[in-house]
Amino acid sequence: MAEHTEDHDHGQAHYVKIWAVLLVLLIVSILGPVLAPHLEFGFLKAWMITLMTAFGIAIVKAYLVAANFMHLNIEKKYISYMLATMLMFMLLFFAGTAPDVMKHKGQNWENVAAEAEIERALAAQGEAGHGEHGAEQEAAH
Amino acid sequence: MSMTKPIATTRSATGIPTGKLAVWWVIGSEIVIFGGLLASYIMHRLGHPEWAEYASHTNPWFGGINTFVLLTSSLFAVLAHYAAEHGDGKKAAKWLLATCGGGAIFAGIKAVEWTIEITHGYTITANGFWSFYYTAAGIHALHVIAGCIIMLIIANDARKGLELHRVELIGIYWHFVDIVWIFLFPLLYIAK
After folding, report:
1. B39 pLDDT above the threshold of 80
2. What is the pLDDT of residue B3?
3. Looking at the predicted structure, is the pLDDT value of residue A6 above 50?
4. What is the DSSP letter of B6?
């Protein structure tokens, strides 16, 4: 019985510890964009620091939750392979469609509508000054 | 009332209990649903320089507090699993209710946030960014609400010491919903 209680406490303490680490990571990801301009040096630019604190930390947080809370670390490998396959599908989808969305013209095509919208929106944002009421003005159009 | 369980409930070719395997497959398909949506958002965000200004109007404090709420509710969910694993149905039910409370706070904060944004003219039809914003966060919020309803049903059984293995199953689902938010948060609130 004593052993059981000890095990019980240890298990719960482990989960609370993981939760505390997750909260620290959350704070870093919120402060990232604020601190980034002060931390840049050499080739390390502010936007790189923001990307790292935003998405790098998101990946670490997701891993901590999946491994410790969802118990993927002790689950049969079959599940990890299955989930990894789904992530691969996602990357495949991205790779297949992203060029058509991220670019607006190619050798034999041009996305006139997207180009016009970017031009219109950027001009509208320029007129609105700092863009404080950008959405209201655009919604009114 | 005692009912014989279907054969599929008790047999297992993978060595994983059938209910748990089913939840993992649900999550596998959810990865494709949310992954497709987020991948689509990312490619549009990168292809449209004008979205940077739109994105600057989201409030990271709402997003940050909601991340804290969901992470904490995930802790409660895993503590519920722990209690269930040790045969304490009553305690598991209490933790599940606490998890559900986290879900309710999350939805409440979202309601306040959206009300402020909509009254400022940032509606789902304002532009492409806000369409993605409401669609992604909205589908996620539906998952939170659905999870809460299922959790209440499971908590009611757990309280009576019934079907305790289901506490782990709803926990796995809840942690996944948490992970989706972990990625939505930097995408919609931080990377501007």
Report:
1. yes
2. 64
3. no
4. P
Identify how many contiguous H helices and E strands chain B contains and give both numbers. Answer: 7, 0
Cα distance between residue B63 and residue B94, in whole Å: 27
Q: Token pair for residue A3?
A: 């052993």
Is the CB of A85 less than 8 angstroms away from the CB of B186?
no
Q: Which residue of A has its CA nearest to B119?
A: A136
Residues of B with Cβ-Cβ distance to A65 under 8 angstroms: 74, 175, 178-179, 182
Look at residue B11 in the predicted model and tell me its pLDDT.
Answer: 75
Rounded CA Rg of chain A? 23
Give yes or no for a contact between B151 and B143, defined as CB atoms under 8 angstroms apart: no
Residue located via tokens 């497959």: B25
Average pLDDT, chain A: 84
| Residue B71: closest C-alpha in chain A | A19
Question: DSSP label at B187?
Answer: I
Residues B27, B173 contacting (CB under 8 angstroms): yes
Average pLDDT over residues B120-139: 95
Q: What's the CA gap between A85 and B56, in Å, rounded?
A: 34
Tens-digit pLDDT profile for residues B59-74 = 999 999 999 999 999 9
Mean local confidence (pLDDT), B132-144? 97
Among A15, A70, A90, beta carbon nearest to B31: A90
| A110: β partners | A105
Across the interface, do B60 and A50 touch by the CB < 8 Å criterion?
A: no
- All residues of chain A having their beta carbon less than 8 Å from the beta carbon of residue B58 are none
What pLDDT does residue A131 have? 46
Nearest to B80 by CA among B180, B159, B137, B184: B159
pTM for the structure as a whole? 0.89
Our CA-based measurement puts residue A59 at a distance from the nearest CA of chain B, in whole angstroms, of 8
Q: How far apart are CA B121 and CA A140, in angstroms?
A: 9
